[in-house]
Amino acid sequence: MNTSTTLPSENEQDQAGEAAGPCAMVIFGAAGDLTKRKLVPALFNLVKAKLVPQEFALLGVSADDLSQEAFRAQVTGFLPAEDRGSEAWRWFIERLHYERGNFGDVTTYQELASRLAELDRTQRTGGNYLFYLATAPKFFAAIVQQLGAANLSWQQAGSWRRVVIEKPFGQDLESARTLNRDIKRVLEEDQIYRIDHYLGKETVQNIMVFRFDNAIFEPIWNRRYIDHVQITNAETVGVETRGGYFDLAGSLRDMVPNHMMQLLSLTAMESPVSFQADAVRNEQAKVLRAVQPLDSEDVLTSTVRGQYGPGALGKESLAGYRQEPGVPPESRTETFVALRLNIDNWRWAGVPFYLRTGKRLARRHTEIIIQFKRTPFELFRNAPFHKLHTNTLVIQIQPAEGISLSFGAKIPGALLRVGSVNMSFEYSRYFGTEAYTGYEVLLYDCMIGDATLFQRTDMVEAGWSLVDPVLDVWKAVPPRRFPNYAAGTWGPKEAGELLRRDEREWRTIEP
Ligand code: BG6
Asked: How far apart, in whole angstroms, are the C-alpha atoms of residue 172 and residue 126?
């Protein structure tokens, strides 16, 4: 695509943002991995972009016995070396506080309440509190209940209280419903920010802009022009140190009701009437409810599961899943899933959506493919060297971000030959590369109270409703042949067969 000269530069975009209003952020699980890898770096990027208010404080809570100085030193260690000692670092570090506590203990919350009241006085945080639950899921309901008991969730006139809840939100529909019910005893829906970090990714948000800010795609975005859609999330990593968690979850629970459903709903939803949180989420929820539920027969014919065995990626040899730390040697947990889904509405009737996600695949790559139909009449079918091509729109989400469209073109020369060429847009070429974690926009939105990029009760439950029947059948019919793909490959052969049966194939992902 051609560069538009009207694009604002990255700096202009940042300058357009306004700092959020006064608030204190409390991180439960302040010594944990998420705080280290995502929350602290993202907050610090917001500080550098001047989007965090002057009247700000961060209060870390964890069971570790740390002094305030030790906590500040620990957080400094989570920041890039070149930023330590900078003016932004000094600004940030002065606003860090620490509270040692036990998530189930009443006194922790009493102590927390008085620390927050003190920060309201010293840092003028205005009684606005953002509680971030970066803990194991078993603590979610208990923390919310304790916040309620300590009067910390109550929004008095002129101040707000919000709670951010990480995934996994439940392990199935029933547990997700129970968790929703428990937290809603204390919080109103608009105080709950259920996070899905895929919505923090630039290209994921760009799906909406691409679809709804360009008049040329909407008329062809339907069953008349689209043959099928593919959503691929391929990871090269295995389960790393998370074998214990992952073996109880598996790829289906870990990726499908949340990340994959977000990608599907943004691709398939109708245009919202505005960009207000509920307008967007109404449309996402609506399309998720329109996904045809899978009955037991469908689960057998339209789903594929896999588990990686030993293999290699380049020169590196890789252990099989069952040899990973924390994984039982006879584990039957899936590390790969492929699904064929149908959406029951006018736009999508008869257009299959193929989803696949897996660990230890050949390449790290997330993309959405819109595969358009062939021309109704093949005018050039007898042209020499003609190879059947179709129009494919590729929305690349990671690691490279961009959009490309392939179409047929005449190959130069005296003979009439038709080949496939690409128009492509790469984020990094137009906007430069950013060191962003993806959590920046999500944290900022929590501070300003914009819930558009967060999951509502009905969306979470719709995601689990789709996955539940698969979990049931898979439990009743254990996998016969695990492991069924070698680490470093594209997954089990059945995933290819799922599409071949429909005379289609997964797009080849080039290095
Ligand atoms: C997490 C899953 O939610 O998302 C992980 O629990 C997965 O298993 C990760 O690896 C993928 O995120 P990303 O941003 O690396 O694609």
From this structure: 38
Task: State the catalytic residue, choosing from 259, 365, 386, 389.
Answer: 259
Ligand 1 binding pocket includes 235 (Cβ within 6 Å): yes
**Does the structure show a pLDDT above 90 at 156?**
no
Residue type, 229: V
| Structure token pair of residue 265 | 């709903």
Please list the residues that pair with 361 across neighbouring strands. 489
Query: Tell me, what amino acid is at 214?
Result: N
**% of the chain exceeding 70 in pLDDT:** 95
Determine the Cα–Cα distance for residues 176 and 324; give it in Å rounded to an integer: 29
Q: Of 99, 124, 94, which is closest to residue 114 (Cα–Cα)?
A: 99
Pocket test for ligand 1, best of 167, 197, 241 (most atoms within 8 A of CB): 197
Q: How far, in Å, is the centroid of ligand 1 from the Cα of 386? A: 41
Ligand 1 close to Cβ of residue 227 (< 6 A): no
Task: Compute the distance between CA of residue 235 and CA of residue 363 in angstroms, rounded to an integer.
Answer: 6
User: Strand 161-165 relative to strand 192-194: parallel, antiparallel, unpaired?
Assistant: parallel
Residue 365 designated active-site: no
Please, which residues bridge with residue 163 across strands?
A: 131, 192
**Could you read off the pLDDT of 272-326 as tens digits, one per residue?**
999 999 999 999 999 999 999 999 999 999 999 999 999 999 999 999 999 999 9
Query: Is the distance from the beta carbon of residue 334 to the nearest atom of ligand 1 less than 6 Å?
Result: no
Compute CA distances 91 → 81, 94, 392, 412, whole Å: 16, 6, 48, 61
CA dist 92 and 18 (Å) reads 18
First and final CA of the chain: distance in angstroms? 22
CA distances (Å), 85 to each of 40, 90, 136, 436, in order?
Answer: 16, 7, 33, 20
The residue contributing the CA closest to ligand 1 atom 6 is 254
CA dihedral 57, 165, 243, 396 (to 10 degrees): -90
**Given this model, what pLDDT does residue 7 score?**
46
Q: Please give the domain boundaries of the chain with CATH numbers for all domains.
A: 10-166 (3.40.50.720), 199-374+456-500 (3.30.360.10)
**Beta carbons of 48 and 82 less than 8 angstroms apart:** no
Higher pLDDT, 414 or 61: 61
Closest approach atom of ligand 1 to CA 167: 3
Q: Which atom of ligand 1 lies closest to the CA of 438?
A: 14
Buried residues in 327-352 as b, exposed as e (16+ CB within 10 A)? beeebbbbbbbbbbbbbeeebbeebb
